[in-house]
């Protein structure tokens, strides 16, 4: 069983292009120390995951692959996916507020009038990664002019993630989300990027998220 788990992990890692492999390591940072992840090769990452998540490493990787949008790999290798509570449940996305929780947009508790059309959708890690993959070479211009970030912080991001433009974009967007906190919604990001020199597909993508 352990050998099968190791072989499957390695095959999954080898099926990822280098850029997505680095993104996978980045998304694992909340569960594995960055000092172990960043220098790890594909076989080394297998060893780390098997040690950290004995018997459960394939489930962990499946969750990360779902964030990367690689459902094809989950299906190809028949990886286990446990049902997880999403950051925004379908009921919340439709404006319904779970019992005991106040709707930050309207202030209504359960029993009030749901504000479905105006319910803001907050950005998830997966959303940010999908936007990051669409951003081009002008990422620093976007960060400074349209997201209001400091150039020194953007240079630090670049130094921390050498040779990986997608991670520069992703970390830049995460920095913006950390600063905006509860205001880091899909509509807010779309408003910030509306006048930036970007692929129009980014705005279309964000527009599609607002409808979800």
Layout: helices, strands, pairs:
Elements: H1 2-15, H2 18-27, H3 34-37, H4 42-52, H5 57-67, H6 71-76, H7 90-93, H8 125-132, H9 139-146, H10 151-160, H11 165-180, H12 186-193, H13 200-210
Helix pairs in contact: 1-4, 8-11, 12-13
Can you walk me through this structure?
With 212 residues, the protein is mainly α. The protein has 2 domains: 5-77, Orthogonal Bundle (Death Domain, Fas), CATH 1.10.533; 125-211, Orthogonal Bundle (Death Domain, Fas), CATH 1.10.533.10. It has helices at residues 2-15, 18-27, 34-37, 42-52, 57-67, 71-76, 90-93, 125-132, 139-146, 151-160, 165-180, 186-193, 200-210. It is globular. The model is unreliable at 83-118 (pLDDT under 50).
